[in-house]
Amino acid sequence: xSLTLVSAAVAQMAPLNRAPSRGSxxxxxxxxxxxxxxxxxxxxxxxxxxxxxxxxGGPWGQLxxxxxxxxxxxxFEHAMAGRWGDVKTLMARGMVAPDARDAQGRxxxxxxxxxxxxxxxxxxxxxxxxxxxxxxxxxxxxxAAAWRGHELVVRELLMVGADPNRPGAARxxxxxxxxxxxQVRVMxxxxxxxxxxxxxxxxxxxxxxEAARMGRTDAMARLVAAGVPAGQLDRHGLNAVHVAAxxxxxxxxxxxxxxxxxxxxxxxxxLIDTMGQRPPALR
Length: 283
Hints:
Elements: H1 3-23, H2 52-55, H3 70-80, H4 84-92, H5 108-115, H6 118-126, H7 141-148, H8 151-159, H9 174-180, H10 184-192, H11 207-213, H12 217-225, H13 240-246, H14 250-258, H15 266-273
Helix pairs in contact: 3-4, 5-6, 5-7, 7-8, 7-9, 8-10, 9-10, 9-11, 11-12, 11-13, 13-14
């Protein structure tokens, strides 16, 4: 197989892409009902009720937003700048709700976790913050720390009872996120804590599939060493060779095939054969 097969597929799709422009000029029994719709004049501000979840931190944050006090606003400013000593001083006044969320859905705990600030994390936890609530980028504190590879924060959160299988945005568990960025030491900690190696994210990928998607053979090796079959299937019944080929991760494809994981059909074989040659529209 070669790139000409891909070109042929593109050629077959081209007439379909032009079909709407031709079809719009065809005369049918419905033509007299088709007209140019004009937008009605707007007479006031648009209601934003439908966008309320986004203003409360995104679809991952369906929690009542806590109105931020002046102290809380200052606390978030200090936290974003890494001035956690000032955050602690403000929290000591009792005017900063432990689970306060800013307009972007961030919480102080997820910010501390994402920054790898163990001391700050302990201070926010001591104030009563929920250790499994999503915040920063829709991630739980454990997910944020796992993604960034902050081992001490991961250990601290697991010690206080954070759920290693609590998904955040896109249904990514902490193990998915650690596999995505190749944080193998964090992966080992999560696996010891009972992380589910068969969990599926929104795309239907397991942590092994997520590692293959990103070409993280180190993470793939860690999962296989923990007992995950190299040929593990995703929600679509495909092994990780397919997702690695789709994303042109040649190292991941070769790593899997060296362990006896085969391409499952002609589409996957075509994807493998055309890695590095496909036009951007087909990547």
